[in-house]
Amino acid sequence: MHNIFFFTAFALPLLTFAAPTTYPRSSIRRLPRQSTNITSPPCDLSTLRQPPNTLPPPSSDETLLLVALGLGTQNYTCTSATTPPTQIGAVATLYDASCTLASSGSENAQNSIYETTDPIGTHYFTDSTTPVFDIQALGGNTVVKRADSMTAPGAQGKNVPWLLLARTEASESKARKVYRVETVGGVAPASCEGVEAGTVLTVGYEAQYWFYG
Ligand SMILES: *[C@@H]1O[C@H](CO)[C@@H](O)[C@H](O)[C@H]1NC(C)=O
Ligand SMILES: *[C@@H]1O[C@H](CO)[C@@H](O)[C@H](O)[C@H]1NC(C)=O
After folding, report:
1. C-alpha to C-alpha distance for 173 and 55, rounded to whole angstroms
2. Which residue of 49, 101, 143, 144 pairs with 170 in a disulfide if CB–CB is 3.0 to 4.6 A?
3. Minimum-distance ligand to the CA of 27?
């Protein structure tokens, strides 16, 4: 009896997580677990380098504080059949990828991070152009604005752009810049044809967020 219960409640979700895919899995519910405190970079990030990109690099006095994995949705809405969808925000759960990346140096470690670590924060928008990262380990909210962007390399058109996000006055955290890289999915449908005005379209995505301060 006990064994059957265990298999149903725990083993099935674990099998699902073990699938070797990097597609957004925001629909998968995680079992709640106790959160842990992170007070400083839990491992040496000094040798970690961003994936090659054409965004302006961090300044020489800025250091890498944390790499978070975001798993969630990019949200869009339609106003009419003839206007393309417009972005109205995003929602994502953030996981700490710092140590895994520092030790493996590979973005392919993403799956194991979802399986083995607890969320460290959330990403959301306060209005359609104001992204926020709520990560207590960085000292509170990081409120940013888009400073630069580039087309995601490879699989063109399938993944949302890579971004440089710069902190605004409203920020509480010590992070000054956030890079969104290694994006998967999140791209709006090409048109609003057949979509009722006012409908919110949510498109699953993953990304790495590199925080510098
Ligand atoms: C996290 O830190 C706070 C404040 O230092 C402390 O009260 C709390 O017990 C800690 N939680 C864990 C899970 O260690
Ligand atoms: C975006 O979609 C998520 C569902 O993934 C929802 O929880 C959130 O409220 C939406 N946000 C906006 C601004 O529409």
Report:
1. 22
2. 143
3. 2
Q: Would you say 93 and 78 are in contact if contact means Cβ atoms under 8 Å apart?
A: no
Q: Mark residue 172 as left, alpha or beta (left: phi above 0; alpha: psi -120 to 50; beta: remaining).
A: alpha
Query: For residues 126 and 168, is the Cβ–Cβ distance under 8 A?
Result: no
Judged by its nearest atom, the ligand closest to the C-alpha of residue 34 is 1
Tell whether ligand 1 has an atom less than 6 A from the beta carbon of residue 63.
no
Strands (E), 43-172: 64-77, 86-96, 119-127, 130-135, 140-150, 162-167
Query: pLDDT, tens digit, for every residue of 128-177?
Result: 999 999 999 999 999 999 999 999 998 888 999 999 999 999 999 999 99
pLDDT for res 101: 82
The DSSP bridge partners found for residue 96 are 68
- List the chain domain ranges: 14-27+61-212
Q: Of 73, 88, 124, 206, which is best to mutate to test ligand 2, by the most ligand atoms within 8 angstroms of its C-beta?
A: 73
pLDDT digits (tens, 9 = 90+) for 176-191: 999 999 999 999 999 9
Query: What's the confidence (pLDDT) of residue 44?
Result: 84
How far is it, in rounded angstroms, from Cα 85 to Cα 87? 7
Ligand 2 atom, smallest distance to 88 CA: 13
Q: Given the CA of residue 125, which atom of ligand 2 is nearest to it?
A: 13
pLDDT tens digits for 33-86? 444 544 455 678 888 899 999 999 999 999 999 999 999 999 999 999 999 999
39 lines ligand 1 (CB under 6 A): no
